[in-house]
């Protein structure tokens, strides 16, 4: 008897990249001084204790989904880049 199956793929590369970016930013903050850098450092530390918005899931064709990091994570990465941390 033949069965019918559905294959679903969730691409998580954007989330993996964001986590790596956060780790890199946190390492870079260890050598930076100033209130803006400390605020950014506290925001990153706060991610562990806060309730994050769930990742955004975008549906592509053919059963492929893409997971995008939460807005909080994206904002931290954007603000770090504005401070010259990449």
- Number of domain modules: 1
Fraction in helix: 40-55%
Spatial arrangement of strands, main beta sheet:
1-3-2
Sequence stretches where pLDDT stays below 50 over 5 or more residues: none
Rounded mean pLDDT is 90
Order of secondary-structure elements: EHHEEH
The total of helices stands at 3
> Shape, please?
elongated
Structure summary, number of beta strands: 3
How much of the sequence is in beta strands? 5-15%
User: How many strands, what sense, and barrel or not for the largest sheet?
Assistant: 3 strands, mixed
**Secondary-structure-derived class:** alpha+beta
Radius of gyration: 17 Å
| Assembly of the depicted chains | single chain
**Distance separating the two termini:** 55 Å
Topology:
Elements: E1 9-11, H1 13-29, H2 35-49, E2 56-59, E3 64-68, H3 71-82
Parallel strand pairs: 1-3
Antiparallel strand pairs: 2-3
Notes on the structure:
- This protein has one domain.
- Helices cover 51% and strands 14% of the residues.
- It has helices spanning 13-29, 35-49, 71-82; strands spanning 9-11, 56-59, 64-68.
- The chain is elongated and about 65 Å long.
- The protein starts with 8 loop residues before the first strand and ends with a helix.
- The model has no long low-confidence stretch (mean pLDDT 90).
